[in-house]
Amino acid sequence: MTAAAIRAAELDDAVDVARIKIAAWRHAYAGIVPDAVMEVMDDIRTAAFWSNLIEKPRPGSGLLVAAQPGEGQEHAAILGFAHFAPLRPEGKELVPAEGWGELTALYVDPTAQRRGIGRRLLDAAFARLGVLAMASVRIWSLADNPIGNAFYQKCGGVRAATGETQVGGKKLALVAYDWPALATLRS
After folding, report:
1. What are phi and psi of 49, to 5 degrees?
2. Tens digits of per-residue pLDDT, 16-66?
3. Rounded distance, CA 135 to CA 99, Å?
4. Distant-in-sequence, close-in-space partners of 55: CB < 8 Å, separation ≥ 6
5. Per the domain annotation, does 36 fall within a domain?
6. Residue 30 and residue 38 in contact, taking contact as beta carbons nearer than 8 Å
């Protein structure tokens, strides 16, 4: 099997990105996010959201995909994606100093997990943020997400803050993982 190539997302990738996000949510958040939310997740609305981000990205943001070429396929299969941007203010929390980026999404198709794709996407997003003069990165994760939290810790993320969000009317605890010195990761 050929290694997946990491590249900038193209408009044609939006449907695959939506499919992966929904599959990853249903896999990782079962029993955490209300079932009613999972049941109404829609490929079309989700693809429209990602299409908009691809066509009209925020300054300093980007969407990367891991694409696996396949024999006889017209285009490569998308196995995962990562979205990065400058750090967003989170409610009343003190926002870290300038030079902080954020991974707003990092998902790998559940059938392609444990192949190093998530790590390669993370590294590529870190590299892109570094080019944009972001010296540090934060990612927010559901506190009850053992898959994601173990991955972020294994990749050197340091638990740095807690928060809260509402999904489907249910309050869910969040945890932030920081990589405060990207330059040391790339050396």
Report:
1. -60, -50
2. 999 999 999 999 998 899 888 988 888 888 888 899 889 998 888 999 999
3. 5
4. 11
5. yes
6. yes
For the domain that residue 26 is a member of, what is the CATH number? 3.40.630.30
Would you state the torsion angle of the CA atoms of residues 71, 105, 55, 4, taken in this order, to the nearest 10 degrees?
-20
Give Cβ neighbours of residue 182 (< 8 Å, ≥ 6 apart): 126, 129, 130, 134, 135, 136, 137
**76 is written with which tokens?**
């490569």
Is 74 inside a domain boundary? yes
Q: Give the angle 24-29-32 at the CA atoms, nearest 5°.
A: 170
**Both tokens of residue 115?**
């192949």
pTM for the full predicted model: 0.88
Total number of residues shown for the chain: 187
Tokens of 54: 């691809």
Rounded CA gap, 140 and 144, in Å? 12
Query: Which residue range forms the structural domain that includes residue 118?
Result: 5-138
Say how many CA atoms lie within 13 Å of 56 toward its Cβ.
3
The string of DSSP letters for 42-103 reads -HHHHHHHHHHHHHSPPTT-EEEEEEE--TT-SSPEEEEEEEEEEPPP-TTSPPPPSSEEEE
CA-based radius of gyration for the chain = 16
